[in-house]
Amino acid sequence: MLLESFGWSPLWQNKFSEFESDGLIPARISHEHRELYGILCEQGERQAEISGRMRFSARRRSDFPAVGDWVVIEAIDDVSRCCIHAVLMRQTEILRKGAGTGVDEQVVAANADTAFLVSGLDEDFNPRRIERYLTLAYLSGATPVIVLNKADLRPDIEAVVETVKSIATGCEIFPVSARSGIGMDALRSRLTPGTTGVLLGSSGVGKSSIINALLGSDALKTAPVREDDGKGRHTTVHRQLLQLPNGGLLIDTPGLREIQLIADPHALSQSFATLSEIALNCRFRDCTHVNEPGCAVIEAVGDGRLDAASYESYLKQRKEIRHHQIEQDVHLKNAEKKRWISIMKSVKQVKGKRG
């Protein structure tokens, strides 16, 4: 099995070089299930567990391998069993705040070149949700691409595309129908051999149907959306890396019930590019675009140049990111306080023994 077919390149070889002398080999994470990882290496598909040392040294959830990661493994029993010793530094990572009230970050997918943001053009179509996924994608470092599935349901598809263009400035937009095949060839050509994409979207937008169409088979289970509200049902239950017939790679992910954004104001300015451009004309450089005099953003909302709903979405996301920044600061302060308490206890114990 050639690693190049799964995205291996001179860049990854350079990152791996420090481990070569130890007799270790590279592999890519294809799926994860209860801390048992599926990996792809030169010897084929194998299963692996992380080493005890790696488990002990991990300080947060994102330190553990994620689907799409390149890892350093040790072969045991002639590669029938493998042990993961390290994760090579990621090029990109789709991160979101873990569900609940904690500050830990969850890696949804690693080393994706392109983030395909899938939205269904049925009753659940929501431009504000696309804005949130854009922020998530820009944060990752992957290139965002908008996929509008179920295009066969919308006779006004051209108007819908124009609406999405207004909130996804500069992004490629693919209106497709996994069911009828509309636009699938164009989407398929976007994934070239050795490059990796990740599908992101809520349940019911048709991610599994899109993958089946790209694979040319019903490899993944699908289910219809609920008729009463158009909401989707979860059919993908874990993340997995798939290879398409044309050599492209695609990471399938379960539908995200919630997208809790983490701290990165720069990603927010990218996902709201139109607003950010208008903000350059504000009277004050540190304008919050809420009630300052001479605010170009508020003026643009007032005269219709900037969509009011998009403006409200921006304020909501900014508040959420700021809240996460504060949570992180408190978490770091508490961790540092505990560290110093531990150090002082050790010092007292040493002094006590000397006394």
Account of the protein in words:
This protein is of the alpha/beta class and 355 residues long. Among the domains are: 3-87, Beta Barrel (OB fold (Dihydrolipoamide Acetyltransferase, E2P)), CATH 2.40.50.140; 93-252, Rossmann fold (3-Layer(aba) Sandwich), CATH 3.40.50.300. The protein is built from 10 helices and 13 strands. The protein has a 6-stranded mixed sheet, with helices on both faces. A 5-stranded mixed barrel has the order 1-2-3-5-4. Strand 2 (36-41) and strand 3 form a beta hairpin. Helix 3 crosses helix 7 (265-271). The model is unreliable at 229-234 (pLDDT under 50).
In short:
The protein is 35% helix and 22% strand. The chain has 355 residues and is an alpha/beta fold.
Give the N-terminus to C-terminus distance in angstroms. 64 Å
**Helical segment tally?**
10
> Using only CA atoms, what is the Rg?
23 Å
Order of helices and strands: HEEEHEEEEEHEHEHEHEEHHHH
Largest sheet: 6 strands, mixed
Oligomer: single chain
Question: What do we call the CATH topology of the domain at 93-252?
Answer: Rossmann fold
The level-1 CATH class of the domain at 93-252: Alpha Beta
Poorly predicted residue ranges = 229-234
The main sheet orders its strands as 10-9-8-11-13-12
- What structural class is derived from the secondary structure elements? alpha/beta
Mean pLDDT: 84
Number of strands: 13
What percent of the residues sit in helical stretches (DSSP H or I)? Answer: 25-40%
CATH superfamily descriptor of the domain at 93-252: P-loop containing nucleotide triphosphate hydrolases
Outline: globular
